[in-house]
Amino acid sequence: MQDPTKDYAGVSFWLETCGDDLTPRPALAGSTAVDVAILGAGYTGLWTAYYLLARQPSLKIAIVEREIAGFGASGRNGSWCSAHFPVSPGVIAEKFGREKAVALYRAMAASVDEVARVAVREGFDIEFIKGGSLSVAHGPAQLPAVRDAHAAFVALGLEDRVALLDKAQTDARVRIEGVLGAVFYKDAASIHPGRLVRGLARAVERRGATIYEQTDVTGFTPGARPALHTAAGDVRAKTIVLCGEAYLTHLKPLHRQLIPVYSLMALTEPLSVADWGAIGWRHREDIDSCRLTIEYMAKTADGRILFGGRGAPYHFGSRIDAAYDRHAPTIRMFEDSVRAWFPRLKAVRFTHAWGGPLGVPRDFMPTMSFDPAQNVASARGYVGNGVATTNLAGRVLADLIAGERTAVTDLPCVNHHSPNWEIEPLRWLAVHYIQRAYWKLDQKAARTGVAPDGKSLAERLTRH
Ligand SMILES: Cc1cc2nc3c(=O)[nH]c(=O)nc-3n(C[C@H](O)[C@H](O)[C@H](O)COP(=O)(O)OP(=O)(O)OC[C@H]3O[C@@H](n4cnc5c(N)ncnc54)[C@H](O)[C@@H]3O)c2cc1C
Q1: How far apart are CA 299 and CA 89, in angstroms?
Q2: Residue 459: what pLDDT?
Q3: What is the CATH number of the domain that holds 294?
Q4: What CATH number does the domain containing 232 carry?
Q5: pLDDT, tens only, 244-261
Q6: Ligand 1 pocket: which of 387, 390, 396, 413 to mutate (most atoms <8 Å of CB)?
Q7: Ligand 1 binding pocket, CB closer than 6 Å
Q8: C-alpha of residue 343 to centroid of ligand 1, in Å
C-alpha cells in the first residue's frame, strides 16, 4: 500500500538536504518481465544498474525498493568516501597474498575517484572534497595502532598513500584535545551521501531503468526462471540482483549471512568562523580514532561537525526497527565526545541525530558474487565502509553478469562466501559479549594508557 505522506526527509540530515523530491515513485502494480531485476535502490543496486546500462543501453532493468531510493544506509551514512575496506590490507595480505591486497587497495582508491568522476559527468553536486582521512591516536594507548597501520601500508609498498604525523603535524591539520599523532591516508573524500544516492537514481532512470518504490520484496526464486516476489506480483528476469545490505537479513535464505549492527550519529549546528579558526580542519579530512568501539567524525560542507560511531545495542533475532535509529544514550555519548574533543564547543547545539543498520558478515569480508547456474547476483557486507566499495561492487557485478573477466573480477571479495552467523540465542550472546568486551578494553586502555594486546577473546574473534 503506497503512503505518499511518509516523512522520508526525517530519516537523516542527508535526505532532508538532498534537494530532490522525496515523493515516492509509483509502486509495482502487477507482474512484469525484465532482463535484470534488482532488489534495493541504495548505492549497490543503483551502481549495478548504472554500469549494466553503460555496457548495454538496451537492457530492461527494474529496481524494486521497499521505501524510497536512499532510504537505507546510502542515505544515512557518515559521508566518508574512502579506500578503507572492512578488512585491513595487512589481514587481506595474510589471507590472500600481498599482490591481491595491493590490487584491492588500488581498486578501492580508484573507486573514490570514480565516484567523483560520475558525479561530475552526471551533473549531481555531491560536495565531493578529497581531503584524505586521519586516524588519530586519542591518548597514548592508541599510538601503537597508528604506527602499526602505517607500517602495514609501508610493508605492502603503499607508503606513498599514507603519512605518519606527530602531534604538531596533526595539530596543524586539526586541533583535537588529547590527540598525540595520526596516520594520514590520501585516498579519502567527504561527500553529501543523499545527493549521491538520489542523483544516481535519477541517472539510471534517464537511461531507461524503472524504480518501483514502496514495494517490498517478500522472497525470490533462483534458477532457470528467476524472479523477485512482491505482494503486487512478480518481477521475472534473466538475472536477479540482491542489494538490500542489512535488510537482506529479512529474507530467509540470507538471514544468517549478515547481522544488522546499528551505527548512529549526532550533528552540530554550523560552527562560527571563530570556532573553525581555532579548530583548523581546513581540508575537511575524515577523522576517526583507534578505539575498538568505532568513533569517527566528518566536517560537512556547511561547516557542521558530524560525530558518529557504533555502540548501540544489537537486537535479538537481527531485528531492525526505526525506533533503534535514535538510541538516546548512544547519541548523548557522541554529543559529549564532541564537547570533550573540542572543549571550546561546550555550548554547541546539536540539530540532528539519526542512524541505521550496517550489514556485518561473520568474517567482515564483503561479497560481490554472481552464480550463473542460479542467475542470482548479490553484493553486501560492507560493514561501515560501503560508500566507495559499493561503486566497486556495481562495476564487479556488471562485469560478472556480462560474463567478462576484468581487472576487478579477480579481487578477493569476488564470489567470496562468508560463513553464516550463529543461530539465536548464541548470536545475541556473542554480539553482546563482543560489544561489552570492546567497551571495557577501550575504557581500560584510556585509563592505563596501554593498548589492548590483541589477545583477548573478543579481539581474536573479530580480527579483520
Ligand atoms: C549510520 C551509517 C553510517 C555509515 N557511514 C559510512 C561512511 O561514512 N562511509 C562508508 O564508506 N560507509 C558508511 N556506511 C556504510 C554504507 O553507507 C553502506 O555500506 C552502503 O550505503 C550500502 O549500500 P547498499 O545499497 O548496499 O545498501 P542500502 O543503502 O542499505 O540500500 C538497501 C536498500 O534496499 C532496500 N531493501 C532492503 N530489503 C528490501 C526488500 N525486501 N524489498 C525491497 N527493498 C528492500 C532498503 O530499503 C534500502 O533502500 C554507513 C552506514 C550506516 C548505516
Answers
A1: 26
A2: 87
A3: 3.30.9.10
A4: 3.50.50.60
A5: 999 999 999 999 999 999
A6: 387
A7: 39-45, 64-67, 71-74, 76-80, 216-217, 243-245, 247, 250, 263, 355-358, 382, 384-387, 390
A8: 33
